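Researcher: Good morning. I'm working through a list of sequences from a screen, and I'd like to move beyond sequence-only analysis. For each chain I'm collecting a predicted structure so we can compare shapes side by side. This is the next one on the list. No need for commentary yet; just the structure.
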Amino acid sequence: MAQKKAPLLRREARGLALQALYESDASDHPPEATVERLLAEATMETGGKDFTRDLVSGSIANLNGIDRLIKELAPAWPVEQIPMVDRNILRIAIYEMRYKHSAPPKVVINEAVELAKTFGSRSSPRFVNGVLGSLMDMDDPVTEASRRQKR
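Model: Good morning. Structure tokens for this chain:
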């Protein structure tokens, strides 16, 4: 089998992480068991499997902080009322942007929007992009200082 390029491997890993978090969210299945079952069925290299596991475990370990950020970034939407797909895409992306720092924020946002296009509703890509764009602005000292001055 030909070796997959890193961006494709990471995109597949993010998709599997989303499936594991979604299933866990929908059915209360333990996320660790869910991700292991999905990875056993996947034909993915060890690096991709490790990345998938990290996305799931990191998102779960930081769930309270991530959900607080979602509340702050999307105040009109209580986290529990955000569609499950969108909520879990945001959790993965915020974990990557705020806790993992393994890819530039714009790359993480683009990957999240692609997941939203594939798995979400018609409005999901715009919603995910808006929330994550706000996070990127919040993390940018120049934009954040400008926003505070306007208040």
